[in-house]
Amino acid sequence: MAPQPAAELGYKPLDGGWGWMVVFGAHISIGFAYSTSKALSIFYKAIQEDLGASYSETAWISSIMLAAMYAGGPVSSILVNRFGSRPIVILGGLMCGLSMATASFGNSIIYIYFFIGVIGGFGLSLNLNASLTIISKYFLIKRPLANGLAMAGSPVFLCFLAPLNQYLLDKFGWRGSLLILGGLILNCCVAGALMRPVIPPGQPSSCAPQKMVEEQPRQRNTKLKQSCMKNAKFLDLSFFKDRGFVIYLIGNVMFIFGAYAPIVFLSAYAIDQGVEEYSAAYLLTIMGFVDMFVRPGTGLLASSKWIRPRIQYFFSFAMVFNGTCHLLCPLMKSYPLLVVYAVFFGISFGMVFALIFECLMDLMGNQRFPSAVGLVTIIECFPMLLGPPTAGLLVDIFADYKYLFFMCGSVIVAGGLFLFVMNIYNYHMLEKEKTAKERQQNQKNIENQGQVSVSEAEMKHTSEAAVEQTEPEVKDKSGAQTDPRPEDAETPSI
To answer: Residue 483, SS3?
Structure first.
């Protein structure tokens, strides 16, 4: 599908300039949003020993954090619509940073659940949604590239935080590490400060009150009405009337269900195959390093004139590619083959996540995207929670890791094929509806022209009748002034 017209925004996006600084800020905030929950696993063993918790209890820390991050999407969308991206990213950075610092003083696992999982997860939700929204305000033609660069923050920060957390744990313990990590996450506030609101052409600069494109109303007395209308989108189910949105949501839920379990169990699977622990952990580093470069590369490719109109099909291909990698993973028995799997896993995973939000922007448009992404993320929190435990259950039942890769791969491939087929159907129906609408409009124009022709004929007929009615009167008047006798008649003699 072609990019949304600039007329939808009421202005032409910059597609550059300060927008690249906004992308840099989004790279930081999105990087912390996606990598923090994964990097926290470094502290799990120390937390278990200190608080007397089990493996399953500590594993819920990241699960609750991810669920809160996704479930907070609609609330984040409302706040972004109301206040803009800059203050919301700053607020999210403060919440997440302070929650980490506060959790470092905890003496129970429930305490950590609340501060890191709930409060920290909701703070990350504010960072994620606000960053994605501001990118759609600054970019149109180059938006896939901008999204790819911003989403590349996830693998970059994962590669950076994992060894850093291990170093901090060795030096300061898990409590001191959480305190320092909270201070690092406060850099999201700096990233939020870079997200300067877009000023439409013709608006005054800083010398006068700025009317921001994102959310500020034009009239003071309409502020409450606009806020209520935008907040109503949180509960409004009108998105489910959009055929393209429903297709995207179903495919996306299927991908999320199988996306994270292979990451969680990859090291354990490698150890089960006889790989040493350090080398097994290094597989995730390889995956993240490849993912780091694939995301911006995919965004650049998706910006091309050949891929951009077909970006939904490109997304379907990326999903099928990712699922196929998981289906082939049980065949990888040696470490070199597992390295090959990690490389292709990083390529396919990076492709999907570079396109996942761009495709939603392509379907919904810039104006509806903030509310749409909030609804999508709250629905995604359910497969996010169910996917890894279901995969773990298969390992417990069959005592073999290959079945979880079969499950995840088959679900993701099915989701990609579903998107491919249903997008063909959706575009066919859209073209059919467009043709029917044009035919109806043409028929209406023909009818209007017919009515105009009939009216003109009636007016012409009326004018002709009026002319015919006035002609006898003219003849009578002219006859009274002439001699009725013939000109050749003889004059009588006297």
So the answer is: coil
Quote the distance between the C-alpha of residue 154 and its chain's center: 16
Mean pLDDT confidence for 195-222: 53
Tell me the pLDDT band of 205, cut-offs 50, 70 and 90.
very low
Do residues 381 and 252 lie in contact, with contact meaning Cβ atoms separated by under 8 Å?
no
Average pLDDT on 72-98 reads 88
CB contact at 8 A, 384 and 256: yes
Query: How far apart are alpha carbons 97 and 255 in whole angstroms?
Result: 30
Note the pLDDT tens digit of each residue in 252-310. Answer: 999 999 988 888 778 778 888 888 867 877 787 888 889 888 888 888 888 888 888 88
Tokens of 429: 């129906």
Read off the pLDDT of each residue in 442-468 and give the average, rounded to a whole number.
72
pTM for the predicted model, two decimal places: 0.68
SS3 127: helix
Residues 6+ apart with CB under 8 A from 359: 248, 311, 312, 315
Angle between helices 121-138 and 73-83 (to 10 degrees): 50
Q: How far apart are CA 108 and CA 273, in angstroms?
A: 36
92 and 127 in contact (C-beta within 8 Å)?
yes
d(CA 309, CA 321) in angstroms, rounded, equals 20
Q: For residue 68, report the phi and psi dihedrals to the nearest 5 degrees.
A: -65, -35
- Long-range contacts (CB closer than 8 Å, 24 or more residues apart) made by 453-462: none
Could you report the per-residue pLDDT of 90-114, keeping only the tens digit for each? 999 999 999 999 998 988 889 998 9
Q: Is 464 exposed, middle or buried (0-12, 13-18, 19+ CB in 10 A)?
A: exposed
pLDDT at 216: 46
Contacts of 1 (CB under 8 A, 6+ apart): 309, 311, 312, 362, 363, 427
Mean of the per-residue pLDDT values of the chain:
80
- Backbone Cα Rg of the chain: 34
DSSP conformational letter for 84? -
Token pair, residue 229, equals 């209308």
- In this predicted structure, what is the pLDDT of residue 60? 77
End-to-end CA distance of the chain: 107
22: phi then psi, degrees, rounded to nearest 5: -65, -40
Give CA–CA dist 115/92, Å, rounded: 13
Cα-Cα-Cα-Cα torsion 351, 356, 359, 363, nearest 10 degrees, comes to 170
pLDDT digits (tens, 9 = 90+) for 347-374: 999 999 889 888 888 888 777 887 787 7
- Residues near 215 by beta carbon (within 8 Å), at least 6 away in sequence: 80, 81, 82, 83, 84, 230
Lowest mean pLDDT among 46-55, 355-364, 406-415: 46-55
